[in-house]
């Protein structure tokens, strides 16, 4: 059974899954959503949960630097709660402070163009969220 990592934004959700042993995270895709229009991509996430036989989902929570949870964190908690209700998967919330910045830095260091970075940044952030969680478990 695998674990899925999600980086939830207002326009996209970056998706990563673990290998079968739960050691490494791989980026899968970026799901387009539209929070303003209540389009959250749950159908696609459900398909991925089934395809990869996911039993646990790690949702990144963008906490403020003082540890409090702001509007984006609350939106991520809503997303995780909906996944639990709709699909019955265990949801774990993971502090994702600075993961998007770290992902951007990795892509810059790899000399990835701005256009390509925009396409993969959320997926890369999901990998970092999931890998952080997996490392804490092993």
UniProtKB/TrEMBL annotation:
Family: Belongs to the YqgF HJR family.
Enzyme nomenclature, EC number: 3.1.-.-
PANTHER family: POLYNUCLEOTIDYL TRANSFERASE, RIBONUCLEASE H-LIKE SUPERFAMILY PROTEIN
Residues annotated as domain YqgF/RNase H-like: 1-103
Molecular function terms from GO: hydrolase activity, acting on ester bonds; nuclease activity
Matching InterPro entries: RNaseH-like_sf, YqgF, YqgF/RNaseH-like_dom, YqgF/RNaseH-like_dom_sf
Organism: Cytobacillus kochii
GO biological process, any: rRNA 5'-end processing
Protein name per the record: Putative pre-16S rRNA nuclease
A Pfam family per the record: RuvX
Swiss-Prot/TrEMBL keywords: Cytoplasm, Hydrolase, Nuclease, Ribosome biogenesis
Signal peptide limits: none
Cellular compartment(s): Cytoplasm
Summary of the function given for this chain in its UniProt record: Could be a nuclease involved in processing of the 5'-end of pre-16S rRNA.
EC class (word): hydrolase
Recorded GO CC terms: cytosol
């Amino acid at each position: 059974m695998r674990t899925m990592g999600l980086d939830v934004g207002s326009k996209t959700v970056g998706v990563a899954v673990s290998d079968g042993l739960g050691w490494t995270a791989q980026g899968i895709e970026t799901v387009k959503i539209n929070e303003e229009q209540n389009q959250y991509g749950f159908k696609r996430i459900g398909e991925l949960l089934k395809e990869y036989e996911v039993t646990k989902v790690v949702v990144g929570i963008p906490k403020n630097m003082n540890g409090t949870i702001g509007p984006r964190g609350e939106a991520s908690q809503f997303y995780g709660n909906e996944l639990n209700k709709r699909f019955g998967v265990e949801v774990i919330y993971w502090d994702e402070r600075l993961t998007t910045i770290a992902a951007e830095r990795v892509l810059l260091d790899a000399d990835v163009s701005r256009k390509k970075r925009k396409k993969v940044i959320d997926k890369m952030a999901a990998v970092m969220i999931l890998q952080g969680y997996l490392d804490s478990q092993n």
